[in-house]
């Protein structure tokens, strides 16, 4: 590899963040009628705290402006949800204490007391109220979407009607950790391949579908290219074979190209009216040639691996429906609890950040996970909630960040 060329690539891609496990939005991609979107029950969210320190373009949570939130004990946290969140938090502790927190808020050692207490805690509500304080990052205005585990039709073996390759990670796909070249690039990475003596971008969707890629294993075949496209958007799912058996596949890697949401493209061009997933899928199937070209405008391409257990998030740990959220690790430490107060009931409460997503960027932006099945699809497919978010961090975090100050400004709602 030509190192000078690689350094040039790095310089040109300084703003690219590390690619992540799962990308939004959700879809039904079985080829059958999608589950109906469930009508949400409205709620009135807590307004964000007025934060004169908020910085719209902060590079991470520490740079976005922080303000103290209310006591955890004052928040409305359902006992059952708190119990599930505690179980998920326990699972995340190992990574919380081991990983470098790119949000700039915490250190591994900060989580030690809470993680130790979590192992023996019996009352989840008391545990969270005792071990955590709340912080609002930036303006606190939250937006939540949803994702779930879809099912598509496919086969492990190629046969008539099942001819769309499901690719595993190519052997010539290379990950480059930019932080190893410069401290200013920590937390950023790029992907590509070696061509001769040069490091070049990996093949995009069009090139892959046209046969340019020759170094990737085929782990199965899908019946429908549209279904596979949206399974890539979801990042994992079940594949139902002709005999009724299923196998699960999950995200293994991605080609390093930017993700483009085709729904907005189609709506801007007047091809669909509402931009719902049902509208998008119906149009793509009714216009296969144009639909293929539109899908190819999303140059991002996801590679899968076979899974023999529960779905895994970006921490490499199982994710839990109704508990896990995907978040931007630069603004919410992966493994940390997040309290959402939103304009629909099912999005409210305590969540644990255990996943990331290519389209989940910025402060207070989350993607709620709902598991599998038609109920999960119905909730996730219509999830679009707005309100406020509070990050739960170990007691004393804000005082440490403010150089010993006494916990920040008293919150004013």
Automatic annotation (TrEMBL):
CDD domains: mlta_B (cd14668), mltA_like_LT_A (cd14485). Residues 151-305 form the Lytic transglycosylase MltA domain. It comes from the Bacteria. Pfam families: 3D, MltA. PROSITE patterns: PROKAR_LIPOPROTEIN. It is an enzyme of class 4 (lyase). The keyword Hydrolase does not apply. InterPro entries: 3D_dom, MltA, MltA_B, RlpA-like_sf. Its EC number is 4.2.2.n1. This is peptidoglycan lytic exotransglycosylase.
